[in-house]
Amino acid sequence: MTMRTVLLFALVALLILGTGVLQSWNTALVILNMGLVSAVMSLGVNLQWGLAGLFNVGVMGFVATGGLAVVLVSMPPVPEAWSAGGARLIGALVLGMAVIAAGVAAWKRLPRGWRGWALAAILLAGFFVYRAVLDPAVGAVEDVNPAATGYLGGLGLPVLLAWPVGGLLAAGVAWVIGKTALGLRSDYLAIATLGIAEIIIAVLKNEDWLARGVKNVIGLPRPVPYEIDLQNDAAFVERAAGLGLDPTTASTLTVKLGYGLLFAAVLIVLLVLAQLALNSPWGRMMRAIRDNEEAAEAMGKDVTGRHLQVFILGSALCGLAGAMMTTLDGQLVPTTYQPLRYTFLIWVMVIVGGSGNNLGAVLGGFLIWFLWVQVEPIGQAIMGFVTAGMAEDSALRDHLLGSVQHMRLLTMGLVLLVVLRFAPRGLLPER
Amino acid sequence: MSGGPYSDDRSNRDRSIANPAGAGAGTAQPVAGGGEAHAAPGGPYLVGEAMTGGYGRGADILHGCTIAVERGEIAVIVGPNGAGKSTAMKALFGMLSLREGAVTLAGEEITELAPQARVARGMGFVPQNGNIFTSMTVEENLEMGAFLRRDDFRGTMEQVYDLFPVLRDKRRQAAGELSGGQRQQVAVGRALMTQPKVLMLDEPTAGVSPIVMDELFDRIIEVARTGLPVLMVEQNARQALEIADRGYVLVQGRNAHTGTGRELLADAEVRRSFLGG
Amino acid sequence: MDIVNALVALANFVLIPAVAYGSQLALGALGVTLIYGILRFSNFAHGDSMAWGTMCAVLATWGLQGMGVSLGPLPTALLAIPAGILGAAALLLATDRVVYRFYRAQKAKPVILVIVSMGVMFVYNGLTRFVIGPDDQRFADGERFIISALDFRAMTGLDEGLAIKTTQGITVVVAVLVVAFLFWFLTHTRTGKSMRAYSDNEDLALLSGINPERVVLVTWLFVAALATIAGVLYGLDKSFKPFTYFQLLLPIFASAIVGGMGSPLGAIAGGYIIAFSEVGITYAWKKVLGHLLPESLEPSGLVQLLSTDYKFAVSFVILVIVLLFRPTGLFRGKSV
Question: What PANTHER family does the annotation carry (chain A) (predicted)?
Answer without folding.
Answer: HIGH-AFFINITY BRANCHED-CHAIN AMINO ACID TRANSPORT PROTEIN BRAE (PTHR30482:SF10), HIGH-AFFINITY BRANCHED-CHAIN AMINO ACID TRANSPORT SYSTEM PERMEASE (PTHR30482)
